[in-house]
Amino acid sequence: TQLLEQSPQFLSIQEGENLTVYCNSSSVFSSLQWYRQEPGEGPVLLVTVVTGGEVKKLKRLTFQFGDARKDSSLHITAAQPGDTGLYLCAGVPIDNNAGNMLTFGGGTRLMVKP
Amino acid sequence: EPEVTQTPSHQVTQMGQEVILRCVPISNHLYFYWYRQILGQKVEFLVSFYNNEISEKSEIFDDQFSVERPDGSNFTLKIRSTKLEDSAMYFCASSEGDPGTGAYEQYFGPGTRLTVT
Fold it and tell me: Does the CB of A91 have a partner CB in chain B at under 8 Å?
């Protein structure tokens, strides 16, 4: 079983602060995706990283895939209250060639206070 | 922007009844998935479907469950003889598939909340 562990589970910060969320595994993933989920809704795709060491930026969000493709991070600069939500990482294990099932982390619940 | 849609948004059923959850994937996508999320827990993979057949299924997806693509647009999940522990949010997802890079970006629907009483 390929596990993705996210940390921290909960994060409460003030508007304007920076933060980093981590997604770690002992397994290798062929790709890793970050989602944001609002209560009662489906996960919304933010970014996909594929190449080890890859860095992608989405406005104030910076995503990095570890060199060994076992871990990833999400860094938010100057957080805003609109960033509040549940952030999920999910990956396709490298040995999964058939169905491309996503393995999800437990999520990081972020609250940004004005 | 194309999106995955799911109906109904909320389904209440009695234990032992059968339910069918419906999904309309993004039109040019080739891979279809069902996931579930029990309240407060991780999103869990149930099944993937490609080329009109199941390509992978999890341990959760036992004989109680079945999937079907009855026409060119719908993708359904049938749960027979529902149990209390089947209560969860059920998400449909679809992906276009990108064999070259291995990036199979999956786009999720809004979910169906299933409540078994």
Answer: no
